[in-house]
Amino acid sequence: MVSQSRTISSGSHRSAHASRHAGAPSNGPAQRRRSGARHGSHRAGGSRGTRRPNNRKKRSILKRVLIAIGILFAAGIVTGIGAFAYLYITTEIPQADKIALSQKTTVYYADGTTEIGSFAEQNREIISCTDLPDYVGKAIVASEDRTFYTNKGIDLKGIARALVNNITTGSRQGGSTITQQYAERYYLGETTSYLGKAHEAILALKLAQAQDKNEILCNYMNTIYLGRGAYGIQAAAQAYFNKDAKDLTLQQAAMIAGIIPSPSSWDPAVNSAMATQRMKRVLNIMQEDGYITAAEHKKAATLPDTIEYSPSNVFSGYNGYLLTTVENELINSGTFTKDDIETGGYKIVTTLDKDMQSEIQTVGDTRPDGMPSSIQVGGIAVDPRDGTVKAMYAGSDYLTNQYNNATQANFQPGSTMKPFALLGAAQEGVNFNTLFNGNSHQHFAGVENDVSNALELNWGYINLYQATANSVNTVFMDVNEHLTPQRTAKIAHEAGIESDIDETSPYNVLGINASTVWDLAQGHSTIAANGVKNTLHVVSNVTDYKGTEVYKVTAANERVFDANDCALVQKAMQGTTVNGTATGVAATLGRAVAGKSGTANDETAASFVGYVPQLLNVWAIWNPDENGSPQVVPEFSGYGVSSTGYPAHLFTEFMSQALANSEVIAFPTATDDGKIGGPDGTWGLGSGYASGSGTSGNSGNSNNSGSSGNSGSNGNQSDQQTESDKQNQEDTSGDGQSSGGSGSGSGSGSGSNGSGNGSGSGNGSGSGSGSGGSDSDNGSGSGNGSDSGGSSDTGGGASGGTSGNVN
Known about the structure:
Layout: H1 2-21, H2 29-44, H3 48-90, H4 98-101, E1 105-108, E2 115-119, E3 123-124, H5 134-144, H6 156-169, H7 178-188, H8 194-210, H9 213-223, E4 230-231, H10 233-241, H11 250-258, H12 272-288, H13 294-299, H14 319-332, H15 338-343, E5 347-350, H16 354-365, E6 376-383, E7 388-393, H17 418-427, E8 436-437, E9 461-462, H18 464-469, H19 473-483, H20 485-495, H21 517-528, E10 532-533, E11 539-543, E12 549-552, E13 558-559, H22 563-579, H23 585-589, E14 594-599, E15 605-612, E16 615-622, H24 646-658, E17 689-691, E18 696-697, E19 702-704, E20 711-714, H25 723-731, E21 745-751, E22 754-760, E23 765-767, E24 775-782, E25 786-793, E26 798-801, E27 803-805
Parallel strand pairs: 1-5, 3-4, 23-25
Antiparallel strand pairs: 1-2, 5-11, 6-7, 6-16, 8-9, 10-13, 11-12, 14-15, 15-16, 17-27, 18-20, 19-21, 20-26, 21-22, 24-25, 25-26
């Protein structure tokens, strides 16, 4: 290295001397400075001779790096092309993404046209584009992809532009062709990754080859989000203009198409200036591309008016209760899943009557002054002939309280369970004129404490008609003892009651087990339909988006009870609304009405079930505390806890409206072929004791002595007599033959609705009378003794009849 350095240095000096000898001007100090610099460099070891090899080395390294980069770049291109080719070969057009096909399911009232609400993951209604005006599709093409009809599914310039944007800004921007957007929304779901975009582009190429342009455009129009919660052109037409897409005008179509890139921000209600600008852009392109004429452009140049948009929850108010009841019924049918309902685009027609629903809601929502806010109300109206639910009061606002007071809330139904035991007595062949001890403070087998009636009233010896009308506990405890609690529970379940009933408790006839409004309606509707059971339902039929019926409910018409047995129960229940615990209801409605009241044993709830042949209505009130535990229902606005009050009032209010101008249908005629005292003569007072009157009993007290007593009885006729009423009158006219007996007795009974007196002696004789109206009916019996009775009634007058020893 030293020798080499010297040689280079010597050469440097020779060069300097040669320059001077060539006549180059000498700069003196400057020249010396340059020379000194060179020598200084030499001393520092930085001569030109040492730099040249290093530069060549650097250039050699750079060259190799560039070659390597080039090779890698080329390899990347080859790999990319290979990967693209592989993806293209292996990519198949998949099944459409489920969410892209999801449609709004709409629920309607029974008329099939009035909408209740809808279920939707996305608010979409898929339509056939053949019904759309041509300019609707052309407006979207003008807005989103002018080359749509000529490109092969992708736009290379658009992809390059998006790639540059992604690199320079760090954002993610995809291709812009309609086919690419269609591929993303319809098949893949949203994606912003490079691999996802590559997949999207490949799929777009394949779609362009496999599908017709019109098919692609139609599917795109049914898929794209267009603002206001609307997916697809049909939902958008409804959201902006409250019309179907097939009825859109050119300017309306251009407005919707124009705001596609940012529908929420460019909604005319939010930014009318931008909406106008975008609409005009679409119209300009449509004219330039020959889709519309200049005249059409000019005519459509004004931004169209849109309807007011206020996002609302379809479950608000009482709609939420109706919708969830519909959904639950369909899911429980096993035909639909929740996902099916929310994405299937079905049309569900319910059994609900729009007017009745409005009426029941008004009645249930109206709260008298002083009614505690804690008191809950539930109600339902059904047609017992086919099980269709016509109206339901489940609460005032679903968004405030999702608990359905008609289908979910439990309360003690009280005496509304008694008709099931009464039906059992009819099945056993017990004549309803059999006398029972209706006094309070009686002891029954399996019961620790004595049983009493409401207000501890003593009703004396009364028949089953009277006991039903006045809801006499001790009589029905006696009936249940003969029938057995298991049998009473079985009958209730056969009628359709699904709630648990204690089959071992003698008290089950008094309604000690919790039930629901829906359950009571189901059970009583079977009796009201003369023993034919039809499962209650709110759905009538379901059709898919193509209009094909996929589900339909038909009446089962399952015979579970004898028709005449049920007619006897109906007859007894009619006394309730004439002069029983719901006195005056029949007179108010101007027709015969069967009814039964109920009060929870601890006065925490009250209920009423009533019906005419074509409509049954149930109401209940209960009073839970803040933890849901039952509390006593306090007196309010003149209504006590007694079931004679508020539930019957709700029934009358609703039925007055629901039955207005409706046909008066007579109850079926009942024939009581049962035996006094039952088939074995052990029911009630036994086979030797019968009432000579028919349908309902006193509301007062009676005192009795001896082997036979007497009771005042009430007729079951109203001013408007039906065939059923005439039958009731016939039943009040002395039903037995008196015969001798070994004992004698006398008694008297009186009440607010009538009075009756009678006596019996050795051979047995008796008479009775009652007054209360202009209509009269007399009958007589003969035997070893005699029996006579009379009845008269005008809208609830009293009738009297004797009781004596009867063979």
